[in-house]
Amino acid sequence: MEATGIVVEYNPLHNGHVYHAQQAKKATGAQLVVAVMSGNFLQRGEPAFVDKWARTKMALAAGIDIVFELPYSFATGHAPVFAEGAIRLLEAAGCSTYCFGSEDGDLNMFKQSLELIDHSKDTYEHEVKLAVQDGLSYPMALNKAYMTLNETGNGAADLSKPNNILGFHYMQAAKFIGSTMKPVTIQRLGADYHKETLELGEIASATGIRNSYFSSSSLDQTNDFVPTMTRELLVKWQQDGLRFGQWEVFYPYLRLIILRDGPEHLTHIADITEGIENLIYRAAKKHSTFQPFMQAVKSKRYTWTRIQRMLTHILTGFTYNKRSMMQTPSYLRLLGMTVNGRAYLNEKKKSLRLPLVSKAASLLDPALAMDIHASDIYALGTGLPTSQDYSLAPIIENHFSSNSFK
């Protein structure tokens, strides 16, 4: 059986995600789709809207055959780290291709970008260094350096676009690890990744769907933009009295940790650099709600996303020392599968390049321990029971659900 791999967050899964899964299978000719999905904390330093188990159910209903969890250390990393962790897992799972959505939708443009940077690596790194010294954030510095190399507009990808950026890093990571997988890209449809509002007649962004709920406390306006299973699971989450994940509900816990531990302890937390621990501490002392706190910390050098990653690590206690023990994925954590996915795993079980973990208690590993710990922290904010990683088995979808949007 041939599998194609995709990298997802599904925060929450919407119609555009269904389209991506459909087109990935169609474009590659694969028999099934394997997804590597972030756990309960995400790449932009945010708690997930709903937990990884609910999002796995969404994925299986939408046509995904296997869902593996991207470990916390990669799921909350900046783009190169996130991409390398995901690509290594898809490679270990035996995927023959991987497919990513992009604004440009042209694989040759990404190949051109890789060649451009490879041929001018010293110049590129020098320009990045100068841009950081000038006060730009690291992502902005990368893009400025890239634009300097690409002044002639020679058909390379536009790396100012969020999906293009991730696509570039997927291809860069695949090249770095010597992956045998062939890349495929699908042009992204509908609303921009960061679009914060919903508009009728288009595929909405996950950001717009979340903001619609948080501004109204109602899911009604999201109905046209999500598949039936997503809608049902979100309604059930609400009916069960659970809180949807956002920083506002986690901020009291975060503030307690910051004020209790103080700036000196914060210096050991991953991504805390250049004295920002003092600014974070002062802001936490002054502000009792999240948005004013963030406005007090944000600057030209420190983007909202970069700060949120720091805060996620403070909340979960993820230190530089812990990160040093998790430099590469060491297992395939199974969250769910269809009948088709189970057949694939049975066929490939002897050739998988990492141990397959279906029970959390079956493996002693620092990265898995971190995932379990992060899930328990997430449970405190949302109202879920703790220790679900031990009590819940991988979800098995016993029928093939419709791949249609509704």
Automatic annotation (TrEMBL):
<dbReference type="InterPro" id="IPR014729">
    <property type="entry name" value="Rossmann-like_a/b/a_fold"/>
</dbReference>
<comment type="function">
    <text>Catalyzes the formation of N(4)-acetylcytidine (ac(4)C) at the wobble position of elongator tRNA(Met), using acetate and ATP as substrates. First activates an acetate ion to form acetyladenylate (Ac-AMP) and then transfers the acetyl group to tRNA to form ac(4)C34.</text>
</comment>
<keyword id="KW-0547">Nucleotide-binding</keyword>
<dbReference type="InterPro" id="IPR008513">
    <property type="entry name" value="tRNA(Met)_cyd_acetate_ligase"/>
</dbReference>
<keyword id="KW-0436">Ligase</keyword>
<keyword id="KW-0819">tRNA processing</keyword>
<keyword id="KW-0694">RNA-binding</keyword>
<keyword id="KW-0067">ATP-binding</keyword>
<keyword id="KW-0963">Cytoplasm</keyword>
<feature type="binding site">
    <location>
        <position position="188"/>
    </location>
    <ligand>
        <name>ATP</name>
    </ligand>
</feature>
<feature type="binding site">
    <location>
        <position position="101"/>
    </location>
    <ligand>
        <name>ATP</name>
    </ligand>
</feature>
<protein>
    <recommendedName>
        <fullName>tRNA(Met) cytidine acetate ligase</fullName>
        <ecNumber>6.3.4.-</ecNumber>
    </recommendedName>
</protein>
<feature type="binding site">
    <location>
        <begin position="7"/>
        <end position="20"/>
    </location>
    <ligand>
        <name>ATP</name>
    </ligand>
</feature>
<feature type="binding site">
    <location>
        <position position="163"/>
    </location>
    <ligand>
        <name>ATP</name>
    </ligand>
</feature>
<keyword id="KW-0820">tRNA-binding</keyword>
<comment type="similarity">
    <text>Belongs to the TmcAL family.</text>
</comment>
<dbReference type="Pfam" id="PF05636">
    <property type="entry name" value="HIGH_NTase1"/>
</dbReference>
